[in-house]
Specification:
about 280 residues; mainly beta; eleven-stranded mixed β-sheet; 16 strands; about 15% helix
């Protein structure tokens, strides 16, 4: 009898101990259980820090071409997380559109609310999905406002094509020619404006890309109400040139549409590396 009582006391103690461990919290997908979570997009260029207009110390790509960066902007959207047990939580779309700007360090955080829980994967779209791209303008506010920014500089919407620019990457390189295929202004500028979501009334190129990051190796996200959980990613802009489809600036200094834009879109899916997670 004493052994039986001791057994039950032991089991109850173990059960209570297991329940008290905050690190074992399973997600409860209810609005009242939402907690702060963010992904940090920390831009780098190869093994160097990211800097705009660093003319005194230009970057060098795999082809040996020197270049500087004058503008970098890209959309991150449709954030989704996967738990230890394989459950998924998708951040409501209205709260899941962000623009990362190279000239604004504060923009590097995509801050959202997700249910408390332990997450082993995060995924996101580089760009703006076709559904949101074709919604009425009143459903596309904030960073998605087509009228936001100067369309000649930092605007991220093609009025002539009714679509978003997913990645805007501009700079200067001495290898850019001064002819019509390069930069006839003589400023040696290169421009990569990558967009297109598959077409509205007729099929077009679809450069929407989804990236999934496994968090297991460098730390899973343990999301709790009483603290900010942040997944820190390095974003290597050099991958635009040195990715799966390596190319030379001199041969393709200006890309906005056509088959080559898809090759660049494939390259920039490899920019993202999980550095660590802060819990």
């Amino acid at each position: 009898m004493k052994r039986t009582i001791l057994y039950f006391v032991t089991m109850i103690t173990l059960a209570l101990g297991a329940c008290s461990k905050k690190d074992d919290v399973a997600p409860d997908f209810k609005e009242e259980n939402l907690a702060p979570f963010s992904i940090e997009f920390d831009n780098i260029v190869g093994d160097r820090t990211f800097s705009l207009n660093n003319t005194g110390s230009p970057y060098t790509n795999a082809a040996g071409e020197k270049f500087t960066i004058s503008r970098l902007q890209y959309f991150i959207s449709n954030i989704k997380l996967t738990t230890v047990s394989g459950q998924t939580y998708t951040v409501p779309q209205d709260s899941s559109y962000f623009m990362i700007r190279g000239d604004d360090r504060a923009s590097r955080f995509t801050k959202v609310k997700v249910p408390e829980g332990d997450y082993t994967k995060v995924s996101f779209v580089i760009g703006v999905d076709s559904l949101r791209s074709t919604m009425p303008v009143d459903k596309r506010k904030g960073v998605l406002d087509p009228a936001a920014g100067d369309h000649q500089t930092d605007g991220m919407y093609w009025g002539w094509n009714s679509g978003y620019i997913f990645l805007k990457f501009e700079g200067n390189s001495p290898v850019v020619s001064d002819d019509a295929n390069g930069d006839p202004t003589g400023k040696k500028q290169f421009k990569y404006h990558i967009g297109f979501f598959g077409g509205y009334s007729a099929p077009t190129i679809n450069n929407i890309k989804t990236v999934t990051i496994d968090l297991n190796a460098a730390g899973i996200a343990k999301v709790r109400k009483n603290r900010q959980s942040n997944v820190h990613l390095f974003v290597d802009i050099m991958k635009v040139f040195n990715g799966k489809n390596s190319f030379k600036i001199a041969e393709n200094p200006n890309v906005m549409f056509g088959a080559f834009s898809s090759l660049i879109a494939e390259n920039y899916t490899a920019m993202f590396t999980h550095d660590h997670t802060e819990n």
